[in-house]
# Entry
Amino acid sequence: MKLYKTEALVLRARDCGGGDKLLILYSREFGKIKVMAHGVSKPSSRKRGAVQLFTRTNFLIHRGRNLDSVSQCEGVEMFSYLRGDLEKISYASYLFELVDAFTPEGEASEPLFLLLLTTLRLMATEDLELLARAFEIKAAGYSGYNPVLETCANCQGPLAGRLCFSPSLGGSLCGACGSADPEALPCNRGLVENLKVLLRWHPSRLRQLKVDRQTRDQLKKLLHEYLIYHLEQEFKSAAFLNRFRAGSAGSYV
Ligand SMILES: [Zn+2]
# Structure
């Protein structure tokens, strides 16, 4: 089979000169794939719009010996609300960077593809922060890093006493196990309940969740430490989001 079809979101696009672009796609059928799109940067190219970052596109791809290439493509969803909205663009970049970090090439995950698509759609109108938090914990789960939230991640006993959250031990810790991880973060029952909701609820329901500023900051810290531990890297976009927030005092809280 020389040609194959796939529906994909454009995760990354890099100019390669001569009007060509190397695309990293996150596809429903094949997971993350790398393809060359010849001539798409030329002003005359009709494929131009379909290979822009954040676009959902139907591709017909030619299987190459070393690198596959785009034969045909049609953009089907442009997420036009992102245009000119720097905050939303930074959130979308962050989600894409997470997917890029979470997924090895060629490993398909339809749930993760659908989560990314759903979250992008909801970002037009819904709470960006809660969508990002739900995305983080769900994406971690799909990648095999579901945090332990029902019992103590260390002794498997009930969550009693002063709770902690340990990225390295994989979730919440009971009061007796707090010392098992000196790096564990302070936690409480309310935070654990919020984490469960973020993990289980469909993202479209998050508007029902009432979360104050302090809790939002705590959830963000717990989840970022958790992701950073499991992915062993910092996310450029997360750092960007923090800078963005710090530089525009209170605009995005
Ligand atoms: Zn314990």
